[in-house]
Amino acid sequence: MKSIPITKYHGLGNDFIITRYSYVENEDIVSFIRSVCDRHTGIGADGAIFVKTNPLEMVYYNQDGSRAPMCGNGIRCFAKYCFDENIDRSEKLVVQTLAGKKVVYRQSEDPFLVRVDMGYAEEYKDKWPIQIGPHTCYSGFVSTVHTVLFEPWDQTVGHDICHDPNYPEQTNVNFVQIQDPTHLSIRTYERGCGPTLACGTGVCASVYTAYTLGKCANSVNVQLIKGQLHIDIDPDGRIFMTGPAQKILEGETA
Ligand SMILES: N[C@@H](CCC[C@H](N)C(=O)O)C(=O)O
């Protein structure tokens, strides 16, 4: 494979290789992702983001090479990449994703902080909740598939629910602890990746679930291993996520 310019970014420890789609479009994309995301023989990352321009589009893949419709931490990093690379420095970006258009509002440049209109939760409540063994699972979509458990973090349970036959396309699994009505802490076992330090769509899905069940307010801070996200749910159910994005490195593959 030819040498490809790459950058690495993270959003609260959820890390991504980012490059332009035009650099990889004629390559074996899945092999490229698996090799750069490998933490021993590559750079190491939870996923890969390819940037398309005119119009702006985020093409997201998990570490294992599977395509995912959206990534909450990833879209903040996408916005920072567009800013750093001078692709688009507008305060408001409209970004096409497989989960529809997302709007990203820049709040500050340094530190780089954005508020993202994540849209609405879908397909929740229809089947709420389902029971998998001793686990009460609240499932639905906030840009991608999520299952929420009000239980302490357990990686084995995360793996097993992710791969449970109730979810033919697997599910991301979020473990939520309510500290008080405006403070939650969350850990996520991600489809296509395993345990991550943060999951933006997972945090949105978790807060939506907790709020709908009357367990928290509509404006909350969520503690993750490397920092916090702020989530607001407006009166008609639209979800907003505010959080940082940071650049780690730039280079090129050998
Ligand atoms: N880390 C992400 C979600 C990435 C996609 C997910 N693993 C899936 O397959 O749906 C986030 O921050 O939202």
TrEMBL record:
PANTHER family per UniProt: DIAMINOPIMELATE EPIMERASE, DIAMINOPIMELATE EPIMERASE, CHLOROPLASTIC
Coiled-coil portions: none
HAMAP family: DAP_epimerase (MF_00197)
Protein name: Diaminopimelate epimerase
Major localization listed first in the record, in broad terms: cytoplasm
Entry GO MF terms: diaminopimelate epimerase activity
Record keywords: Amino-acid biosynthesis, Cytoplasm, Isomerase, Lysine biosynthesis
Record bears the keyword Mitochondrion: no
Sites annotated Could be important to modulate the pK values of the two catalytic cysteine residues: H146, E190
Active-site residue list: C71, C199
Reactions accelerated catalytically: (2S,6S)-2,6-diaminopimelate = meso-2,6-diaminopimelate
Domain of life (superkingdom): Bacteria
Pfam family, one: DAP_epimerase
Xref: InterPro entries: DAP_epimerase_AS (IPR018510), DAP_epimerase_DapF (IPR001653)
GO BP field: lysine biosynthetic process via diaminopimelate
Location of this chain's protein in the cell: Cytoplasm
